[in-house]
Amino acid sequence: MVQSQMRFFGACLWVATAVMGFCDRISIERLPERADLSVVELFSKLSPDDTGITFESELDLHHPLKRLYQSGFACGGVAIGDLNGDGLPEIFLASGPSSNRLYQQKAAFEFDDITTSAGVSGGTDWAAGVTFVDIEGDGDLDIYVCNYDSPNSLFLNESKGGNFFFRETAAKFGLDLVDASLMPAFCDFDNDGDLDCWVLTNGLSRAGGRPQKPPFIKDATTGKVTVKPEFSRYYEIVQTGKSTYTMDEVGRPNYLLRNDNGRFVDVSTKAGITSKGFGLSATWWDYNGDSLLDLYICNDFMAPDRLYQNQGDGTFTDVIEETVNTIPWFSMGSDTADINNDGRLDFVALDMAATTHYKSKMAMGDMGGQRWQVENIKPRQLMRNVCYLNTGTSRFIETAQLSGIANTDWSWAAKLADFDNDGRVDLFVSNGMSRDFNNSDIEFDKSHLIGRTQWDFFENTPAMPEQNLAFQNVGGLLFKDTSKEWGLAHTGMSYGVAYGDLDRDGDLDLVVVNLDEPVSIYRNNSAGPKQNVVVVRLRGIEKNCGGIGALVRLETEAGTKHIRQMMPFTGFLSSNLPELNFGLGSETTIKSLTVTWPSGGVQEFKNLTAGNRFTIHEPSKFSKQPKPPEPQIPLFTPSKVLKGLVHRDQIFEDFDRQLLLPNKLSQLGPGLAWADVDGDGDEDLFVGAARGMGGAVLLNEGLDAAGVCQFRLPSAKPFIDDAEQENMGALFFDADRDGDMDLYVANGSYEYLEGDLRLQDRLYLNKGSGRFTSAEKALPDFRDSSSCVTGADFDRDGDIDLFVGGRVIPGKYPEAAKSRLLVNETIPGGKPKFAEVPGLKVTGLITSALWSDADNDGWIDLFVTCEWGPVRFFQNRQGVLEEKTEQAGLASYLGWWNAIAGADIDQDGDIDYAVANFGLNTKYRPSARKPSKLYYGDYSGVGKKSIVEAKYENGVLLPVRGKSCSTNAMPHLGKRFATYHEFAIAALPEIYNPTALKDSLVLTANTLESGFLINDGKGRFRFKPMPDLAQVSPGFGLSFLDADADGKMDLFMAQNFYGPQFETGPYSGGLSVLLRGDGAGGFKPLMPDKSGLSVPGDATSATLTDFNRDGRPDLLIAQNNGLVLTFESTSRGTGKFLKITLEGGNGNPSAIGARVTALLKSGKKIVHEVSDGGGYLSQSSSHPLITLGDEVVTKIIIRWPDGQVSETIDVPGQGGSLRITSP
Description:
The chain starts with 12 loop residues before the first strand and ends with a strand. The protein has 15 helices and 87 strands. The chain is mainly β and about 1200 residues long. The strands form 23 sheets. The protein has a five-stranded mixed beta sheet with strand order 1-2-46-40-43, with no helix packed on it. The chain is about 5% helix and about 40% strand.
């Protein structure tokens, strides 16, 4: 027998708590003191001999339904609940091939099998998911079981006097569905006081497999092919390409059953829920906080997941495309909880992504035939888990790879709970499969299903046991694998999981159902002063006695927020003990505990203590309800400016040129640039365009009667004449020294051949009114694929010189196009002329550049970012640029840098820099010890170079790409590696000739964090990573601004990249991010609900200007293949801005390169540098906007581009505008 820990049931106290002048009741039961067992693992696995639970979900090879072992029906679920009200939970185990089992707990972890006497064996039904639910609202828990293709079972609890007895009554309640019923989930979706039911279905497997004769017919008139009615339960015609179709297995429709006075009625169609799919989990949750329960459906394989938003009128709308950018492909179990303690419910959905290189390469067969479906199902499906972070808006941020939980093997149940009671929600994942159905060395396709099932084909192959995984939430959106440390690293075939406090000591124990071995019972050993806990039980009125769907919010004395939803039906096939556990870590005092009941009523309790179990009773009459919090006004709001302006890229198949290209290179724009081109005092806009479209200059017409800034297109020419070019960076500057703004457009694309005339950059001259003409022969004849252009008077001769970055040689990635420094040799009054400065060696795959005086010597220096290299620093030695990357402390940070921007973020008088990288939410995890590598060489011996990506695992260098795609690119590999196994176990030098690898171009990356370069004032830098939300997606456009007018510099970063090859999928987890600065170099990310900024697309350029003329910065953000988005400042904050217009004269009318220093009355100073282009393909307003907060300016000092210094004492100290002319 299990030695029970001492159980102490303290006196049950009824406490009258004053809330808004009324009294509500809460009963308090003191939890027993838990012995500190810190020397042992967090969980102890108890033996069946000790617990008495000997049930085993067997793999019966003789059962007539054994074909179900290849599906989610392979192993039944588990439910935990107190069925007789004695305070000790029972356990029900559903079984497929044998009978169900019900175990009564007599003492802590001591169970008796009472299945027969209770009458719940289920007979010959193949059971799957199970829930404990009070179906009739009489105060005790009943049992509802989903069965495969036989009536579902409802065992009504009629136990009396300690004797368990249940009566099967599914037909009476209308719950006797016959279908591929997998799992039920109850809630009061219509808020009428009783529980409704969702029955999740999967698919029906036809005995004997597909028929010998095709089960479809073709209409002689229309030519339309349909499945014969008698086979429509199993198959349907599905689209596999633009004009190709095939027959495939089909999932079943789900059921929404409304409770009409105790009888459940199918209202699925009426509610707008008609989609089919191979459902594996269903989770009710109020994702948008409107007090209506919504529903997330995880569908296996091609059918997309669904997020049904409750409309409040009995209908639902699928909003999955409007809420997330990506979903799992093989979507499995799911759960919801508050991962980051911000008081919002987040969400995790599992897939079956491998945790090791070997497993990954064994499962990655030729996927080319599925590409169309993968890329055209919306949202885009990914072959990995997802973690959706709730932003308080309609859209989620996805963080699974950043969080370290994207790959968990063939996973079934996801369980989010605070298992170690440290105050953060952890994750448990069950793993394993009856057979290795994804083994690429087993030749299998749908033709093998004719006359036999998939199980028949794989039955004689080995099983696929895998290790279960536990992840401790360590904060900062990060999880740590603690499977072995916590004693949960069981290897087997584990499916359903439920948690609950079985021994009533306050912490969560685990029950895991395994296939072909006994159930695992885990006792939680957490204890000690840093593992305080609170348990909440709810007692509702009317028919929802358990308070299903209620939200419980808890805030500690220290301000830590916790939220739980009473929804025990989560994970996979199982239901948890219906009570809520809150780990509090070392905190002991609860400032407030708030219950929001499904009826809408709210109860609030204050000044409670940890170490208790609270039972909260819903009152029949609620006290005066607390006022909802005042809606917060975000810092920005979407604007109507330029509404409908869209960028469209023509489809080009980059991967046809280089099969192993990691990312598309033909969709990297557009760029944006601002300047006053017509001399009317406001700033106009150039928007770059993709090939075939033609860029455009849009003239600012000022505000209309509604206060909306209007723009007009004066003429499509001359840009439409160059529409075959792909615009990248753009720069307004005075090229011909006549005082107005001309335009340089950098052109570059992977779509053309090396040296194509369409790769030539363009210079357009301003006629003085905002009309442009193409300047002939002003630029050298170079036909590189350019990326960025940025300008400064680096030689102090009074005009703007240019740096033009080269991106890539088309068809030869990673060979870089040439970058150039173009010196302006234009004579005043003459034609513009630019010449290349010889000797400057700026090599690499250049993405952006910035001119900035980093060492404060008065000479403008140059920063260059690149892919596969460091941020490079070129120091200006009085007109001569010398690379000082290593001396600046930058050489060791090798990344995929995309952008750079400068500002004094720590208010120490020098310019610091933000640098955008690919972030930490990708499949790549490089470090200094385990860098990512890219080899480019001839590995076939035929004179053709190929790309080989490589990574380290356990000290071994391995290929990133799998056998199929590698062999397609280099056919000789197919002869050397006959099987996927052989390829999967081979190190890189065993696959590719070591000599060829040695002779290759080799590139390295060891840093993917976006971050800050903190300047010591002398041009030496310390790298400081940005906070977590800045790492959830690749960063591109960067703009420093004071968004909240507090006198401290903030940073906006545009995010997402939709270009990775299709097996990887887009890196689109972000919504772009605003980082709020503290004035000392620290930044905190703002969620979109506070910033007002949400950019779900493929964001590129990010620019600033004041287009609504309120004296504050507004944002314009470009998206590749998407809308150009505008956001206006909402003028929050009381701080003031001082707008300074510098007049620098012809050649440099905006005084590009000037440094502005504002001396403040407090003794502080604010430094601003005037730049011409930066970020990513971006040129913002050139007018310095000095942010004062509550400070007063006493003096303005200008160091002009030529080195002269002037001082201005007569300044509007508390904001306004100021015009200063160069001496």
